[in-house]
Amino acid sequence: MNRREALGLLAAAPFALAAGPRAKAYSDADFARAIVIDGLGSPTDPEMKPGNWRYSPRGIAEMKQSGLTAVNVTVGEVGNNIDAWNATLQRLSYVGGIIDANPDLFLLARRAADIREAKAAGKVAVIYGLQDTAMVGSDLDRLRILKSIGVRSVQLTYNLRNLSGDGSLEPDNAGLSKLGRETIEKIEAEKLLLDLSHGGRKTIVQAIEASKRPLAISHTGCRALNDNPRNVDDASMKAAAEKGGVVGIYWMPFLVASGKPDTADLIRHMDHALNVVGEDHLSIGTDGTLSALTIDDATRERQRKFYEGRAARGIAAPGEGADIFNYVHTLNSHLRFRMFADALSKHGWPAARIDKVLGGNLLRLYGEAWGG
């Protein structure tokens, strides 16, 4: 951690300490025991060379030091691209190659027991997830094919309208289509996890009503705290919880209007969501990489190109920008989950609640969705 990051944590401390009575500190033993699941993220190696799928010694060390037990990795193409199906298969092949090249570090999660196995073996369970059903369209048998490859989480829409319904950026807010309802039925029949992140307001409401099994909103923020279309309103979060589902808070620019959240902002969203859904239905989905982000000229140029590409495709949400990075700057470390647990503990959260939010709630949900 550099001096700037340390100062950022210190700046957040008055908020955390003032929020409630001091709970028993979340110890190293507590963290070592905990199941830590990132409901949406990317396990990265800062020294990975092009064409080399084997993690570097540094990448392996940071992964193991992070305490991460499992992560939902996006393996599908997003957007209404004509070649989305083939692009998804190529992405699945690439991520599968990474897992195969690092058997001492990763395993593929097909059931909840695989996550427990990863924890016992000191590995990271990789959950294959989709952030769109545009690549499925009306060919719902593709969901069965994707399941056979290993996909376990299916997000219905991604910001824009697809054949299933409207995403969060569609101004008409038309909700689910007839096909969308059939898609939900197929997702649940295949015992896949339905994810409503990135959905339009009406789409989320109607999808929760249509679902018959527990579901996820894997990565979002509280719209009551920042009125951004990527954030979800209290009524929808509560409805998801009442179906037995789990709502994950992301570590993204959309937490605050400035696009530059810190630890205090993240905890503010965690507190609000806790009051809405309860501690048994709350989780995290960082929507970020595990490695620390080094902000230099090369990083700034990559971010500019990344944003301009998303803007050109119409999938960039309000709050994104050429100079807005997808992280909580005071948690910019591969040790972010430990730092986050410490911040919650200092804020007054008991260890049992921290355990649930770090991964216990998602592990329960995955077991109910997939079995095992």
What tags apply to this protein structure?
disordered N terminus, six-stranded parallel beta sheet, 372 residues, globular, three-stranded parallel beta sheet, alpha/beta, TIM Barrel, single chain
Description:
The chain has 372 residues and is an alpha/beta fold. It has one domain (3-370): TIM Barrel (Alpha-Beta Barrel), CATH 3.20.20. It is built from 13 helices and eleven strands. The chain has helices at 3-18, 28-33, 57-66, 84-101, 112-121, 141-149, 178-189, 201-210, 234-242, 263-277, 297-313, 336-347, 351-370; strands spanning 37-38, 41-42, 70-74, 106-108, 124-130, 151-155, 193-195, 216-220, 246-249, 282-284, 288-289. Helix 1 (3-18) packs parallel to helix 12. The radius of gyration is 19 Å and the shape is globular. The N and C termini lie far apart (39 Å).
Main beta-sheet strand count, sense and barrel state: 6 strands, parallel
> Over all CA atoms, what is the radius of gyration?
19 Å
What is the mean predicted local confidence, pLDDT?
93
Number of strands: 11
Structural class: alpha/beta
> How many domains, in number, for the residues?
1
CATH class: Alpha Beta
User: Cα distance, first to last residue?
Assistant: 39 Å
| CATH topology (fold) name | TIM Barrel
Instruction: Label the overall shape.
Output: globular
* Helical stretch tally: 13
* Percent of residues in β-strands: 5-15%
Q: Give me the CATH architecture, please.
A: Alpha-Beta Barrel
N to C succession of SSEs = HHEEHEHEHEHEHEHEHEHEEHHH
**Percent range of helical residues:** 40-55%
CATH superfamily membership: Metal-dependent hydrolases
Low-confidence segments: 1-22
